[in-house]
Amino acid sequence: MASKKMIEMLNHQINREIYSAYLYVSMSSYANFIGLKGFANWFNVQVQEELAHAQIFYNFVNDLGERVILKAIETPEIDFKSPLDLYEKTLAHEKIVTSLINDLISLAREEKDYASDNFLAWFVKEQVEEESNANELIAKLKLIKDDGRGLLMLDNELAQRTFVAPSPLQANTNA
User: Fold this and answer.
1) Spatial separation of the C-alpha atoms in residues 104 and 161, rounded to whole Å
2) Contacts of 103 (CB under 8 A, 6+ apart)
3) Are the C-beta atoms of 54 and 14 separated by less than 8 Å?
4) pTM of this prediction?
5) CATH H-level superfamily of 4-166
6) Which of 21, 34, 118, 175 sits a CA distance of 20 to 30 A from 141?
7) The dihedral sign for the CA sequence 169, 170, 172, 173
8) In the chain, where do the E strands start and end?
9) Are 6 and 106 in contact (CB under 8 A)?
10) Element (H, E) at 165
């Protein structure tokens, strides 16, 4: 059984995952506005992933027999300078999410909450992937610099990205 503090933190994490989706909608809007539809697509896939993460947390809290309490989502950032700025801010945001997941794991271990600890292990791996993806795109954008052809090639690459439901969500829907 999860503690009251753990349930509060899990509920907070649902809020943060929804905020992440909201932030990525803002980033997609910027990319679309400057004519980079592939970049916009990449962020739209991120939106779907973050909402799926929120759903995974929501399902877990419900499985624990606890109530999900939703709170207001703050306005996301809307001012971006460039595609590189988008991904630098993505990386900074994902590092915050990683920190929040780490805090949840620390609490689970402190409280010997093995169910939550086990549940959160998937998110540790997911955050490694999230940060790695952002780092990879930052590196590519730094190589491209101001080369419009390179930017368009990357835009075409990012247009190919599709959403795949995360495995914990697939497991829950197949039950």
Assistant:
1) 30
2) 9
3) yes
4) 0.94
5) Ferritin, core subunit, four-helix bundle (1.20.1260.10)
6) 21
7) positive
8) none
9) no
10) none
